[in-house]
Task: structure prediction
Amino acid sequence: MQYAGFDVYEKSINKINSARPVEVFMAKGSGKQGDFLVVNFGNGENPGFKGEKTAEGVIKAPLSHENADVMRKLFPFTSPSRVLGKERSFGLGDRLGIATPGHIKIFEKYDAYPVFAQQSIRELNLTNRRYEDVLDAASFAVFREGFKKEWGADGDHLKTAEDIQYALSLGFTMITLDCSEHIRNDINAANAPALPQNIIDKYIGKQFDIGEGTVLNFTEEDLRVINGIYGKAVAFAADMYRRFLKSGKYNADFEISIDETSTPTTPLQHYFVARELIDAGVSFATMAPRFCGEFQKGVDYSGDLEQFNKEIKVHAIIARHFKYKLSIHSGSDKFSVFPAIGKETRHIFHVKTAGTNWLEAMRVVAQADPGLYREIHKYALSVFSEAKKYYHVTTDLGKIPDVDSLANGDLPKLFENNDSRQLIHITYGLILSRKNPGSETFTFRDKLYDLWQKHEELYNQLLFRHIGKHLDLLV
Ligand code: ZN
Result:
């Protein structure tokens, strides 16, 4: 839409009604500079945006972090909120900084609240971004699309006080504490340390009636092993809570993640961790256990469905008993377990997906530029073993058809093939950061962003279809 001499995003037109009204909107730019804000303050005062003057009382302001901060103050809907207290929340993690407009369309339709900004430190490093970029991309997309529902920002899988401080200082509204480095998977009945008396007194010989006909009890051996595995993780979480969240200085929810560990969390372990945290005065909104079976990135659940259904039921009862929500990580594409998750949690949950918007972005490439897709696919094959160091996947490269023997029109079908999905899923960092030999220029990155910009509508449609399938089964 043409407006005031600019090619404007229609839904982005906002006014501040003061004695001298100020108008702010986003306009389409071209090339590397891309979109920008236009601030029209007439004969009033510039509310603080930095940019270049284009007419009397009008400035063109770049989508910088500084301007994002001004925008968030002026237009609170562009600031993240705490959404874990809502019945349904859904983490999306826009690794590329371009998926939020597509994600917005999904949450205009479904009764769930999005966490648009969600990134781990590992993802930041692999994509060469900072938390500032992640938050700003979400805020600008929300402004552009005029999305007025609340949305969250998650410092995902944080492991250190420094990283927690970093995310909170920028206004992130959720901290997912990764306790994995404090979980002792090497502990078993043979080497578990003796129990402290207070733990014995609290648990041994007791029946824990958590309602809904479910009673849990611990043998001394169970308890010794569980305390050995999780004792330090509980102490770590309590320490981080006291340092950062207890005072309420930061407006953020706390999620306890014990999922990135080598063995599934049994219901007894889940109960113990929750109970110990609560007894230590830790208030948390969600907990992510590791469920039985495999929750590998970008593909459906694999494992014993019957056991999963039995265990999710108890996990959900424990969460209800203690009044927090279950958080399901690596939730992308787990279509065969979504109905049970929806039912057992009574449709009250937090589900995180992350890489799935990257896979849809690569599906766009396969559809729109088969030549470029083939090049990237072959590069991914060549670096797969390196990427595998960071992810637990059971990909069989032998099951991926040769891209040179596939017709152009068949390339998008690779995204129905689990092995091919995982190949592209876990190599994203290497693909994006690949530089031409002996040069500082990116091999794929700039070409990809150009292509995604050109095919934005297609990308939004694919995201809507794919994430929508998740919500159809969960909500
Ligand atoms: Zn996780």
The chain has a mean pLDDT of 96. Residues 2-63 form one domain. The pocket of zinc ion is lined by residues 157, 257, 259-260, 288, 329 (CB under 6 Å). The CA atoms of residues 102 and 460 lie 4 Å apart.
